[in-house]
Amino acid sequence: MKEDVQKKSIIAAIANGLERVLEWVSIIFIVLLTINMIMAVFFRYILSDSIFWADELSLVLFAWLTFLGGSLAVKRSEMAAVTLFLSRLPDRTYRIFSSLIQILIIIFSVVLGYYSYLWIKSPSVVNMMSSTLPVSMWVIYLIVPISMVCIIVFAMDNIRKIFTTQLNEEGGFPL
C-alpha cells in the first residue's frame, strides 16, 4: 500500500523527472567543462596561444555544476550532516526532526531564490554582459533561482518520503 502511495504521488513524479533532467544536464556540463579545459591547456601550452573566453566558461560551467549538484544532493539526502544524534532518536522523533530539517531547507531556498530572482531582474544585472562570453550576466546568475526551485521540490518530496516510508535497518530513511 505504501508503495502505491509513493507511485501515485505527483510531487514524487515531478522530483524523479527533475532528477533525471538534472543528471543529464550535469553530465553534459561535465563533458563541456572537460573539453573546454583540455582545449584551453592545449592552446596555451602547445600552440602558445590562449582562448580568451575559456577561463570564464570554465568558471560558469563549474558554478552551474555546483548548484545542480547541490540540488541533487538534497534529492538524495547526501548533504553533509552529523547523524550521530538523529540516528539514536525513536522513530517518531526522528521523523519530526528529519521533516524539520527539510522545512528549514525549504525556507532557506525560498528566501535565497526570491532575493536572487529580484537581483537578477535588477537593471544592473540585466544590462550587464559577461566580460569574455557573449552572454548577459542574468543568464549566468539564473542558476541560483533555478537550483532553489529544484531544492524546494526535492525537499517537499523528502518530507513526503519521511512520512510514507518505513525506516531501514540502520534506523534511517532510504531517501
TrEMBL record:
It is found in: Cell inner membrane. One of its GO terms (molecular function) is transmembrane transporter activity. It comes from the Bacteria. GO terms for cellular component: plasma membrane. Residues 35-163 form the Tripartite ATP-independent periplasmic transporters DctQ component domain. Its main location: membrane. The chain crosses the membrane at residues 21-45, 57-74, 94-115, 135-156. Keywords: Cell inner membrane, Cell membrane, Membrane, Transmembrane, Transmembrane helix, Transport. One of its GO terms (biological process) is C4-dicarboxylate transport. It is a multi-pass membrane protein. Pfam families: DctQ (PF04290). The keyword Cell division does not apply. PANTHER family: 2,3-DIKETO-L-GULONATE TRAP TRANSPORTER SMALL PERMEASE PROTEIN YIAM. Belongs to the TRAP transporter small permease family. This is TRAP-type C4-dicarboxylate transport system, small permease component. The lineage of its organism: Bacteria, Bacillati, Bacillota, Bacilli, Bacillales.
